[in-house]
């Protein structure tokens, strides 16, 4: 867990643009006295003014989303270092317009900090996030899934927002 927390601290300081939370980490507390098999209770904590506080019920929706994304990245780097793919399913659900922009900019900074060592797959209906990531990250292609008038799914490859090419 020590290595996960080191990576998590590096990611947080690189990506988070607020000044209220200095760092986040995963805290593990041993449970029971069994010598055969150790058990732990895990929690996510934040460092505020040098003090460790439980993150649950104390941070914004945007901070929670960012923390969950960064925790997944840190865990992947430690346990699956040879697979630098991050998949996000609806990362902006229930976020307001400002928070969506914030998440988009944070993801952009994360991608920039990782260079060619990360591949991002985002499943979203949020056109604002797609546009922001497309403009800032300049991917070779963006794929969209839609249905035609007969209800048949079509995969479309976009080289630029608005330009499409059907892919079957």
Automatic annotation (TrEMBL):
Q: Name the Gene Ontology molecular function terms of this record.
A: double-stranded telomeric DNA binding; G-quadruplex DNA binding; single-stranded telomeric DNA binding
UniProt-listed Gene3D superfamilies: P-loop containing nucleotide triphosphate hydrolases (3.40.50.300)
Cellular component terms per the entry's GO annotation: condensed nuclear chromosome; Mre11 complex
**What biological processes does GO assign it?**
chromosome organization involved in meiotic cell cycle; double-strand break repair; telomere maintenance via recombination; telomere maintenance via telomerase
Q: Where is the ATPase AAA-type core domain?
A: 58-130
Q: Name one Pfam family in it.
A: AAA_21
Q: Which PANTHER family match?
A: DNA REPAIR PROTEIN RAD50, RAD50
Q: What is this protein called?
A: ATPase AAA-type core domain-containing protein
